[in-house]
């Protein structure tokens, strides 16, 4: 039995081992609190000590509650140099691979679960319709506890959605639309409340902005978010600088999280140093708090047991691993997550788009001419050096940015596959593929701009006013 357990533990990643130790620790506490028989408690403690020993053997470090093994410092257990070249944290994404980040390795490193065919089929059965193209194409590729969300939905229990935006500039780019396009679809097919956090406080702390400018950007970004088509009766958008001062429930949860996470832990998770301001160190608790329904008493009628589902890019996962570790210790359900890949910069998939580099991004304010110029001039090509070579050897869709963008925005699966085959065979040239992308993005962005023009300051105020939504709890 012991050999079987050890074999099982040896197959786990450091992050999975960390979660096993955490869960066993919670079990021991629950048994002690419930005054369980001594032999049952002793057996659970022995299991906990065995798990901690396996964790130390694998990682070379003692288990510390709330401090997972550092994402960016890969455990030295035979990893190759290539694995070390992917750098992912909430602020920076870099890889030397033209195909982009290796997401399968990232799943192992972060200890999440792959969104496989079985899960996609289960979502399809639950909602009674074809899954979103982001699921079909692996754009949302990883999850935590999505099966629990589906269990709740199938048993007529509610959940809610939470996503966010860090308003670092007045204009958003097309990459920023990805979580909102998907979240809108999730809200429609599951018919659940949605809260959207605008972290203007974070941008004030990290960027050279005044609080007034950060709040102004938040309101401008809210207009772009509203233009995605969210239902005002089912959606609450809030600025941290605004909402924190008016919600006792929100602040109470922030304080609870802050009490259960040490400075040493946030240094390990986020890489903070002794030189960082205390605002940065305490910010993760503010991003954690919307994961708990009691942060929104006006929506959930004070109920604390409504589980949360968070669609976000994978670089935001460290915040929510911390949140999931703290949740049971403050009597809250762990949030579930759906992780997306990064939207690549025009220059290639080695980095994600940057709002501060106008040539790395297609902005939602760009004109049709600007879109055409940027794609033709800057979009990294997977084509050959000459037309003759391209016709003979074909293009590489794995590194071609125009094709990558089409996987995000072209709805028709058959058309996308035809383009892939034609480009790979050399029948379709790079300029022709870029033309397809231009003709896809120009009307999409023009339509968004038209919808945004209809968003008034009064509409923004409606979305951002704390209130009851069209749900009963």
Can you offer a commentary on this structure?
- There is one protein chain.
- The chain has 473 residues and is of the alpha/beta class.
- It folds into three domains: 7-59, Helix Hairpins; 89-346 and 458-464, HUPs (Rossmann fold, 3-Layer(aba) Sandwich), CATH 3.40.50; 368-454, Tyrosyl-Transfer RNA Synthetase, CATH 1.10.240.
- The protein is built from 23 helices and eleven strands.
- It has helices at 2-10, 14-33, 38-59, 81-84, 103-110, 117-127, 133-136, 146-154, 174-190, 200-206, 211-226, 240-243, 248-259, 263-270, 278-288, 297-300, 317-326, 368-378, 387-393, 401-409, 413-425, 430-453, 457-464, and strands spanning 87-88, 93-94, 113-114, 140-144, 159-165, 194-198, 235-239, 307-313, 336-340, 344-345, 348-352.
- Strands 3-4-9-8-5-6-7 form a seven-stranded mixed beta sheet, sandwiched between helices.
- Strand 8, helix 17 (317-326) and strand 9 (336-340) form a beta-alpha-beta unit.
- The longest helix is centred in the last third of the chain and has 24 residues, at 430-453.
- The radius of gyration is 23 Å and the shape is globular.
- Residues 71-83 have low confidence and may be disordered.
């Amino acid at each position: 039995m012991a050999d079987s357990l050890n074999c099982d533990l040896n197959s786990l990643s450091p992050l999975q081992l960390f979660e096993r130790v955490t869960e066993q620790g919670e079990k021991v506490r629950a048994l002690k609190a419930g005054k369980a028989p001594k032999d049952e408690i002793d057996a659970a403690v022995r299991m906990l000590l065995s798990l901690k020993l396996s964790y130390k053997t694998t990682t070379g470090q003692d288990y510390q509650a709330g401090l997972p093994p550092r994402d960016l410092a890969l455990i030295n257990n035979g990893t190759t140099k290539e694995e070390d070249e992917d750098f992912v944290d909430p602020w920076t994404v870099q890889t030397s691979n033209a195909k982009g980040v290796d997401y399968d390795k990232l799943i192992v490193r972060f200890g999440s679960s792959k969104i496989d065919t079985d899960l996609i089929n289960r979502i399809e059965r639950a909602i009674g319709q074809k899954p979103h193209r982001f699921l079909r194409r692996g754009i949302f590729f990883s999850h935590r506890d999505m099966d629990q969300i589906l269990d709740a939905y199938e048993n007529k229990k509610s959940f809610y959605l939470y996503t966010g935006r860090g308003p670092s500039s007045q204009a958003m780019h097309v990459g920023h639309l990805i979580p909102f396009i998907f979240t809108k679809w999730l809200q429609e097919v599951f018919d659940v409340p949605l809260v959207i956090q605008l972290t203007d406080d974070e941008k004030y702390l990290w960027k050279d902005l005044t609080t007034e400018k950060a709040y102004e950007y938040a309101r401008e970004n809210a207009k772009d978010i509203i233009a995605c088509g969210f239902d005002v009766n089912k959606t609450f958008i809030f600025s941290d600088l605004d909402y924190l001062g008016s919600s006792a429930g929100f602040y109470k949860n922030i304080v609870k999280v802050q009490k259960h996470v040490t400075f040493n832990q946030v240094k390990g998770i986020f890489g903070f140093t002794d030189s960082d301001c205390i605002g940065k160190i305490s910010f993760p608790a503010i991003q954690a708090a919307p994961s708990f329904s009691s942060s929104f008493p006006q929506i959930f009628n004070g109920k604390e047991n409504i589980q949360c589902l968070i669609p976000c890019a994978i670089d935001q996962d460290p915040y929510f691993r911390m949140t999931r570790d703290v949740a049971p210790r403050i009597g809250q359900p762990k949030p579930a997550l759906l992780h997306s890949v990064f939207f690549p910069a025009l220059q290639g998939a080695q980095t994600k788009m940057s709002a501060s580099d106008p040539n790395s991004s297609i902005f939602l304010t760009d004109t049709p001419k600007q879109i055409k110029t940027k794609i033709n001039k800057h979009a990294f090509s997977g084509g050959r050096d000459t037309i003759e070579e391209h016709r003979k050897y074909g293009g590489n869709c794995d590194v071609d940015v125009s094709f990558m963008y089409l996987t995000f925005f072209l709805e028709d699966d058959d058309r996308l596959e035809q383009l892939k085959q034609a480009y790979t065979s050399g029948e379709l040239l790079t300029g022709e593929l870029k033309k397809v992308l231009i003709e896809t993005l120009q009307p999409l962005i023009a339509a968004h701009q038209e919808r945004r023009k209809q968003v008034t300051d009064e509409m923004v105020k409606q979305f951002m006013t704390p209130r009851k939504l069209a749900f009963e709890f």
